[in-house]
Amino acid sequence: MISCSDYDYIEIVCLFNYPIQLTLKNGNTITAIALDTARNDAREECIKINIRGKDTLVILDSIAKLRITVDNPHFVEVVF
């Protein structure tokens, strides 16, 4: 589970549907549009993202870094 202060970053990118780049703890990167927060079938907290027209859930605990890929007034990058 991520901290409440870290969860705020997830909520910001979803609220504004920002284009983001996620770096996962396994080293993989994902470029997508942030959509919403959700829970998967195992009840794990996730971020719902859209990758080239396909909605996908990414478990929040698997994310090492989140970067917004457009100029914005909120933040550029956060490391979890």
What is the domain tally? 1
The whole-number mean of residue pLDDT values reads 97
Would you give the CATH topology? SH3 type barrels
How many helices? The count is: 1
Unreliable residue stretches:
none
* Secondary-structure class: alpha+beta
Structural shape: globular
% residues in beta strands: over 45%
| Sheet with most strands: strand arrangement | 4-3-2-1-5-6
Q: For the report, how would you describe the main beta sheet?
A: 6 strands, antiparallel
**Strands, count:** 6
Summarize the structure.
This protein is α+β, with helices and mostly antiparallel strands and 80 residues long.
Task: Give a verbal description of the structure.
With 80 residues, the chain is α+β, with helices and mostly antiparallel strands. The chain has a single domain (4-79), classed as SH3 type barrels, CATH 2.30.30.100. Helix content is 15%, strand content 49%. It is built from 1 helix and 6 strands, in the order H-E-E-E-E-E-E. The chain has one helix at residues 4-15, and strands at residues 19-24, 29-39, 45-51, 54-59, 63-68, 77-79. It has a 6-stranded antiparallel beta sheet. Strand 1 and strand 2 form a beta hairpin. It is globular, with a radius of gyration of 11 Å. The N and C termini lie close together (11 Å). 15% of the residues are buried.
